[in-house]
Amino acid sequence: MKTILVIEDKQEVRENIAEMLQMARYHVVQATDGRQGVEFARSARPDLILCDILMPGLDGYGVLHILTKDPATARIPFIFLTAKVDPAHIRNGMNLGADDYLTKPIDDIDLLAAVELRLKKAEQTGQDVDQPGLADFLDAFRHSDGIPYSSLRYTKKQVLFTEGDAPINLFYIRSGQVKHFKTDVSGNAFITALSGEGDFVGLSGLILSTPHGESAEVLLDAEICTLPKAEFLAFVANHLDIGAYFMRLLATELNQRDERLLKLAYQPVRKRVAEALLLVHRTFYSVADESKRMPTKLPPNEPSSGKRSLSMTLSRENWSQLVGASSETVIRVLSDLRAEGMLELSGSQITLLDIDRLTRLKH
């Protein structure tokens, strides 16, 4: 019997979906929010995941981001549930690695057809969610077992590589934060991506055999493993499952960068600020170890309403580079969001008070 994980914060919707699936003889595991969903995905190892997008605390995008970084859950078919039918909304989820979308209210025939189709495709392509080769590779990377690499401490503002450099290493972040950025002829920088614990850095240059198309700089003191190019390519060539994993990782990485550049060109600054806040939240907030990534505090007058506040610190320069606007403009928009009750500001620290409203704002 196939196991399906349903992650949905609204009880009536969740139970209706579970009932339809159980009538079709699927075993159903129910999670009431994103954090619980990640925990159940890791423990139950379902054959497929159905996940709502707008949830308090950790939203559906955050769930997918975390699960795709974990080799034990990276290949589980993933279907988003959403009440919004918006091409940009759907493209964002697909770029993150979602397999399909179902719109609410969900028709029972559409639901069962989508589930059956995704399960069949997984079987036909050999999409086994258990990846011992990849798990062994990452475990070796974490614990110095059998992979010839060095592990070094990096301090804030140290550069891993510069745009135009020839790629010579693959980097794996054990702890800390790294920013990726491009610089124009006038010296203005734009942050194209952020990487945190468990992420690989410098992948595109190695696989495509081209100079780095961006620079990478340590944002917060980090421990980073370095694997030489020749050893990495040889390892990938001899392990097809690992090679396929890195190709998917590269495709997702390139799609996400294209999406950010598109938003920079067409979205108003207010939406770009909301997107930047949520990007930092998704990248540096860990369900498994939240105390080390982003301290959580609830203001004394904060009601118990399902909202979650997350404190994060970046310099004005980095926020400006992340949004693609002047520091003054970004500060003005942040002040507006504070006045509307979505966040708190204290020096360089920003505390998100209402992630649901920020998520709706960016769309």
TrEMBL record:
PROSITE patterns cross-referenced by the UniProt entry: CNMP_BINDING_3, RESPONSE_REGULATORY
Claim: Transcription is one of the keywords in the record: yes
Matches recorded under Pfam families: cNMP_binding, HTH_Crp_2, Response_reg
Gene3D superfamilies the UniProt entry points to: 3.40.50.2300, Jelly Rolls, Winged helix-like DNA-binding domain superfamily/Winged helix DNA-binding domain
Residues annotated as domain Response regulatory: 3-119
Region (Disordered): 291-310
Cyclic nucleotide-binding domain location: 154-232
GO MF entry, a single one: transcription cis-regulatory region binding
Gene Ontology cellular component terms for the protein in this record: cytosol; protein-DNA complex
Modified residue annotations for 4-aspartylphosphate: 52
Keyword annotations of the record: DNA-binding, Phosphoprotein, Transcription, Transcription regulation, Two-component regulatory system
Descriptive protein name: Response regulator
Organism lineage: Bacteria, Pseudomonadati, Bacteroidota, Cytophagia, Cytophagales
